[in-house]
Amino acid sequence: MSGVVDENLVRKLLAAQFPRWAGRTVERWPSGGTVNAMFRLGDDLVVRLPLTKGGAKDVTLEQEWLPRIVSRLPTPIPEVLGAGLPADGYPWPWSVYRWLPGDNPRPDALGRPVPLAEDLAGFVLAMRRIPTKQAPKAHRGGPLKTLDAETRSAIEQLRAIPEENVDCDAVLAVWENALGMPEPSAAPVWLHADLMPGNLLLDGDRLSAVIDFGCMGAGDPACDLFPAWNLLPSSGREVFREALSVDDATWNRGRARTLSQALIALPYYRKTNESMAGNARHVIQAVLDEMS
Question: What is the pTM of this model?
């Protein structure tokens, strides 16, 4: 889009569509995300405006499905309080949510990773138990081979960036080994499909909320194993796997999916988004350490 997404736009949209909130303070909220702008609305609300057409699809998905799954989950998730429409030159749907307090976890600053691993596994299990009838396809829920070309391209890009010090032969071996594993034979399950640290909130050392469900839908259960490598140390990783009863093939697919995402993200974000690039570096090292 060509217009500016800022506090003034939010105030205009609120005044026209949700006048009951128009008098509240509006403040841009810093975020490591790349497809949405977030604005605090007073103390207890937040406005989410997509910055891309793809982000707009995510908002629409949340508006439809979050109210339908919330009662089945043990962890707080975003509550849609207002579904906004395109207006004032802004071309996409947008949402007002209740603000969820908490801090994003950092892999290097987890006080008690084992209880956190248990919390994460409880959330993933609850998602899997939701009936998948009429569920959309998850953004990352398809066969592993659909990621092959982009993953290999990213590895070749990283070969040309020696300062990143990625062992490209080693990560390629991990990837090719996973491609040889059987694809899931069981039915697809409900997934969050984007369990990055930026989409998790903690109260102290415990999971207090999961946010950003724009990738959710039915797909390969391996897609919700990402925290095993993007967040948890080996002790928490083992607890997470055991709680979810993950077989070897699913574990290998989950590791490969997480690695693929990191390999693609690192050359793309290394100079523009330190949060995303930093976590990508962490994932690559965590995967190689586990395989050594």
Answer: 0.95
